[in-house]
Design a protein that fits this description.
By secondary structure, the chain is mainly beta. 4% of the residues lie in helices and 43% in strands.
Length: 323
């Protein structure tokens, strides 16, 4: 058993954690798809957390799959993570990586199970399709409660046949079913180059949408979105409550587009006038980053960047926000 507070997930020592290795010598599975197929199930009855531990030993993975079919709750869920030695250092140059070129509409990972956690993975996504009117997503939480996407790099790194795409989105969060508790956390992530296409929905780094008469909560903390048509795009048909703090948007067509109700929206930064809040900054620039050369992006902030020491201390709530 374990405890939960405000949507956070905690595992205490009594919880059984089943960890399987992926993409290393002597691995349990050589793809994320095989891990998900084998490890889903009724985790509540089993009283287990199922962890896929992704290594960087045998090259990039090329998975495209759905996390679906498990019975979960806030203390028993599916989790994809990376061991400390194989984690990226804030760029896509190294670390456990999924490299996938999509040739049609869809997402690299569709997340349909409540309480799923994905962390520390680099996603290098390409597009190359012969058809038309296509929309693709990197990660897509769909009608889920308390999904955590944290410490990931999600980039559109190769583009071909771009005229066949209506929109490309790094993270698309959508709720179109009745109910409550639909909430996604995006924390400590870097997204860039989601700028192919431009129709509805606009190409976007992080997009959240509540369908007609539906309710969604977005919590976006410590994220950077660069060189997208829209940086952060919130749209509503129903109710959308959002918490956005310490988020940076630079070189996007529009950095922040808000809709819904701001429960917390401050200490953000943009290079246009869209970072609202008394403590937000609207003088950010590409010069604040270490490197913006295409293919070698390093979106760490320089020591002289205007954003340094201008954020708010989020302490440790929710769990993982400081990692």
């Amino acid at each position: 058993s374990a405890s939960t507070t405000s949507g956070q997930s905690f595992i205490d020592k009594r919880q059984t954690t089943v960890t399987k290795t992926i993409n290393q010598t002597g691995e349990d599975y050589n793809t994320l798809t095989l891990w998900e197929d084998a490890q889903d199930g009724n985790l509540v009855t089993a009283d287990e957390v199922h962890v896929g531990e992704l290594y960087d030993d045998d090259g990039d993975l090329t998975d495209q799959f759905t996390i679906d079919g498990s019975t979960t709750d806030a203390t028993r869920f599916m989790k994809i993570t990376v061991p400390a030695a194989d984690r990226h250092a804030g760029t896509a140059a190294a670390g456990a990586t999924v490299t996938k070129t999509l040739t049609g509409s869809g997402s690299v990972i569709s997340i349909n199970d409540d309480y799923t956690v994905i962390e520390w993975v680099v996603f290098k996504i390409g597009i190359d399709a012969g058809g038309g009117n296509l929309t693709i997503y990197g990660l897509q939480p769909y009608n889920v409660k308390d999904c955590f996407i944290q410490n990931c790099i999600i980039a559109l790194t190769s583009q071909a046949n771009v005229n066949n795409y209506d929109a490309t989105l790094g993270i698309r969060i959508e709720v179109d079913t009745a109910g409550s508790g639909f909430r996604t956390y995006v924390m400590n992530c870097i997204l860039y180059n989601w700028n192919v296409g431009g129709s509805s929905p606009a190409s976007t780094g992080i997009r959240a949408n509540s369908g007609s008469h539906r309710t969604l909560e977005l919590r976006s903390y410590n994220n950077t979105v660069y060189n997208c048509d829209k940086g952060y795009l919130l749209t509503i048909g129903g109710t959308l409550n959002y918490y956005i703090n310490n988020c940076l948007g630079v070189a996007n067509g529009t950095d922040f587009t808000f809709a819904g109700t701001a429960q917390a929206n401050d200490y953000n930064a943009s290079d246009d006038a869209t970072a609202t809040g008394a403590n937000s900054i609207t003088t950010a620039s590409t010069g604040d980053f270490v490197l913006t050369t295409a293919g070698s992006e390093n979106l760490h902030l320089k020591s002289t960047a205007v954003e340094i020491n201008e954020g708010t201390d989020l302490a440790t709530s929710p769990s993982g926000v400081q990692n």
